[in-house]
Design a protein that fits this description.
The chain is an alpha/beta fold. About 45% of the residues lie in helices and about 20% in strands. Helix 1 (about 40-60) runs parallel beside helix 2 (about 75-95) and helix 4 crosses helix 5 (about 140-155). It is globular, with a radius of gyration of 15 Å.
């Protein structure tokens, strides 16, 4: 099973692709799609869509998991972030991939046992659960891998991080 995790953002969208072989997780790819903040929103979402569809074509994921919106204090920020999420959801739907959505607190709780975990704690668990030698890079890429791991845990009926081996 190949799972494509996405941490959407209008300036930086993180992606992480993992393989789940009977509960054994390994990384396939991860990184970020970065857009130019000076570009119009329409151009930024186009850039995100093109890159995500290229990654889908390259890796042929079986399922996709996208991080849901958090409750931002700024309504405009939430609205713009919603556009990036919409493009991520569209890329999966257009490729006929099953798409799941997870709240940030659910991802954090699945990986660390604490829904209020810091980005550093989540990254630590991503490195541990994927047996990585190196840091996956940006927090956006790490968060996307976390979303993919959360999806793997949920689809396999795992409730706590300690259950995933």
């Amino acid at each position: 099973m190949i799972i494509f995790g996405i941490d959407p953002g209008s300036h930086t969208t993180g992606y992480g692709i993992i393989k789940d072989a009977g509960g054994r997780l390994s990384i396939i790819d991860c990184g970020t799609v970065t857009t130019n903040s000076k570009d119009a929103l329409s151009q930024r979402v186009c850039t995100i869509y093109k890159k995500l569809t290229e990654l889908i074509a390259e890796h042929q994921p079986d399922e996709m998991a996208v991080e849901d919106l958090f409750n931002a204090k700024n309504a405009r920020s939430s609205l713009i972030l919603g556009h990036a999420r919409g493009v991520a959801l569209l890329s999966g739907a257009m490729a006929n991939i099953s798409v799941a959505e997870y709240a940030p607190r659910e991802v954090k709780k699945a990986l660390t046992g604490n829904g209020a975990a810091t980005k550093e704690q989540v990254k630590f668990m991503v490195i541990r659960l994927l047996s990585l030698r190196d840091d996956p890079g940006s927090n956006d890429a790490s968060d996307a891998l976390a979303v993919a791991i959360c999806h793997s845990m949920r689809r396999n009926g795992k409730k706590l991080t300690g259950e995933l081996k």
